[in-house]
Write a structure and sequence with these properties.
The structure is a homodimer.
Chain A: H1 3-9, E1 19-24, E2 30-31, E3 46-50, H2 57-61, E4 92-95, H3 97-103, E5 108-112, H4 122-136, E6 140-144, H5 148-160, E7 163-169, H6 174-181, E8 186-190, H7 194-207, E9 211-213, H8 219-224, H9 227-236, E10 244-248, H10 253-267, E11 277-283, H11 288-294, H12 320-330, E12 334-337, H13 339-353, H14 359-373, E13 383-387, H15 395-398, E14 406-408, H16 412-421
Parallel strand pairs in A: 5-13, 6-7, 6-9, 7-8, 10-11, 10-13, 11-12
Antiparallel strand pairs in A: 1-2, 1-3, 4-5
Helix pairs in contact in A: 3-13, 4-5, 9-10, 10-12, 11-12, 13-14
């Protein structure tokens, strides 16, 4: 018996708010809401379809300071904000005039998702996954991960009072293990590489009917959480859509969901529909989508990742083809940048705006720079950059070439001399 | 010529909002607002005095989502929110029912200041210091620090487009240097210990009329930033004061300013005045204020710090006597906890509420536990815990005893077996 079936046999109607059905991305087959992620009709990913009804700005503005203010646009129970959650979201959107000047453009906004509870956008998707998983009757939150997702799952489960299982490759560095293990999750080091860990997760999801693997069996709900980035950007701009946005690409899900979020805001009348060009950012060491884009392909050839931007290092991105569609349809572009450019991107954002991003943020900033220089991003139109994670988690990536300006003896003269030479 | 004199000779009146004068803490001598921190009359610290006028809840609630919503209660220019700033504050106050249950009390609230731009409460005090420093005509933001303060100064200066000078002992670990140096501050490694660095800062503040050392020459303004913790707690509770609050003690400034903040809210009529018992938390390895409290002393004997809670490791806390006054006057208490208890406090908060605090947060949680067990904190009254910094910055402190539950082969059976034994 599936978890969905169990929920239904309790007699309680399934409440996932405005979520109405699942629909397959390829051939648009429809099926009831359930913890399933692939269509058995056309084998394409399943996505949530909605009956939105009336959604008003005033109701959202009067809601909680978290993603739950947008619950009328998410696949979550109507009383979602009543349950203990990490309550992510409502992170800063800052006008980045120093960065804009450095890049020679008119206006840049930085969406700073380092302000989330575990300091990455993964808190958003995990919170939505947990809310849906609770409604489906799951009891354990789980994931395979090497970083941000593990942190977010372990923290969200702790806060909700759930058990969690986090699977990591046993070669993961001690610091990264600590960042998740501190929440007392059942963190298991798996004797294998990340592909082995992922395969194991899919097997376990099939065997344990109480386990919700956030990015496997409840993925259609999980991935909808990324729409909240789009909702917040629009609300923070005064209920309008930006002209251009740069989004980092890992699986590609975030980019497609940001686009979906902008469209839904227009559909329900929360914003005046207007075109947003969507740009994708990859690290050259794992740039299968950028390569397909540049070669004019519709399919994405898998690669073996080799980049410091590990949170983006997915060699076979599930949503790659949909990213290509979205970017082409909106008039955007996809570019990739070297690890040195990533480091420079991190430093540029830090020194201009005081925001220390993880490597994925460096990819976004460096890609924006490259797209501006190539004339693909319009310097006279405004651009939003999504900074999705925190530099404190990828310190090792920037340690070369950053350090004290000088070592001095403890005297005024020594300090003055050092600063003259710096 | 002092910076204050320079501002005044420009003909522009000094605008520090409601701030009216400086007053000495001991004998209440009054003097004009200036970048000075010690009274030449009685050699006690100077503190800001105000003419508040009318302050309305509605104006605050309609203000920005940052500490600037409280500008009518801070020594900052009237147009403070118009200048580029890290815009700290408005961090989460969460109801911590899991933690309350674990501690056997009725209700606990956690003020989670890890959500600030550089993930500690120092962003608050630095933002206020920078705003006042700009008004006084300073051009460079500076500090001696080994951690959170350095991060906050470097980031705030970057965002404001200011130069900054950060002085650290040359023995500081590479990871901690990176966290500040990434903002391209003039970070200087000083050949000496932290006392040498501090002395050098005071000398430099005397020599460089353009340099604002946040915690030296503009300290009276800087320290007022801690009041915003009190303001936010009260507003987030629905405009009322909590019954009990636990505050970590380093210099002791934060504890006294939280008290001052609560009092000012009552004075201007934003809340109904009500008593809040204020409790102080120290690490046993640096507990001069707890020792003085327990011995019934009015003065604090300096100690040589030896604790993992480095952000609290001030052996000669400047505001120690005022902390003793405040705690005794409000009916609170001061307690200290061992490094092992600090680690347990960090883990307890993480596993119950999904918040990963730095060692100072572990001190606060562990002290609360000890005070509850001793019957000093009333289990039937609500308690607020201030969590002032992020665990990602003090990973080394918790690395012992935290790790994977098991190492397993990549099979469902191996996972199940490991979880049965965990």
């Amino acid at each position: 018996m599936t978890a969905a079936a169990r929920t239904r046999t309790t007699g309680k109607a399934l409440d996932l708010g405005p979520a109405a059905e699942l629909v397959s991305k390829e051939e648009k087959h429809r099926q009831p809401l359930a913890p399933e992620f692939v269509s058995l009709e056309d084998f394409s990913p399943l996505e949530v379809a909605y009956d939105f009804g009336t959604v008003r700005r005033a109701d959202i503005e009067a809601g909680p300071r978290s993603i739950w203010r947008y619950k009328q646009l998410l696949p979550v129970p109507s009383d979602v904000e009543q349950h203990a959650s990490t309550d992510p979201g409502c992170t800063r959107l800052i006008r980045a005039d120093n960065l804009a000047k450095a890049l020679g453009v008119k206006r840049i906004w930085v969406k700073d998702d380092t302000g989330n509870p575990t300091h990455s956008f993964k808190d958003r998707v995990v919170a939505v996954a947990l809310a849906a998983a609770r409604e489906f009757g799951f009891k354990v939150l789980a994931c395979p991960s090497t970083g941000n997702l593990a942190n977010a799952v372990a923290a969200a489960a702790a806060r909700a009072g759930w058990d969690s299982v986090v699977l990591v490759p046993k070669t993961l560095e001690k610091a990264k293990i600590l960042m998740s293990a501190v929440y007392d999750t059942s963190l298991l080091a798996v004797d294998g590489n990340y592909d082995d860990v992922n395969r194991l997760a899919t097997e376990l999801a099939g065997e344990h009917e109480d386990w919700a693997f956030v990015n496997v069996n409840v993925r259609p709900y999980y991935s909808e959480g990324s729409k909240t980035l789009a909702f917040e950007v629009a609300e923070q701009l005064g209920w309008r859509l930006p002209e251009q946005i740069v989004v980092p690409i890992a699986s590609g899900s975030q980019l497609t969901k940001v686009h979906k979020g902008f469209n839904e805001l227009g559909e329900v009348g929360l914003v005046e529909p207007s075109p947003t060009k969507i740009f994708g950012a990859q690290a050259t060491g794992c740039s299968p989508v950028a390569t397909a884009y540049k070669e004019g392909q519709d399919v994405v050839q898998p690669v073996r990742p080799d980049t410091i931007a590990r949170s983006l290092a997915i060699g076979a991105p599930a949503d790659g083809p949909y990213v290509l569609d979205t970017v082409r349809q909106t008039g955007g572009s996809i570019e990739d940048v070297t690890d040195d450019e990533v480091r420079e991107g991190i430093k540029l954002l830090a020194r201009t705006e005081g925001i220390f991003a993880e490597t994925a943020g460096g990819v976004t900033v460096a890609t924006a720079k490259k797209l501006i220089e190539a004339g693909k991003i319009d310097p006279d139109a405004e651009t939003v950059l999504l900074i999705t994670g925190d530099g404190l988690k990828t310190l090792d990536a920037v340690q070369d070439g950053i350090g004290p300006k000088a070592t001095v003896s403890p005297s005024v003269e020594a300090v003055d001399e050092a600063l003259r030479q710096a």
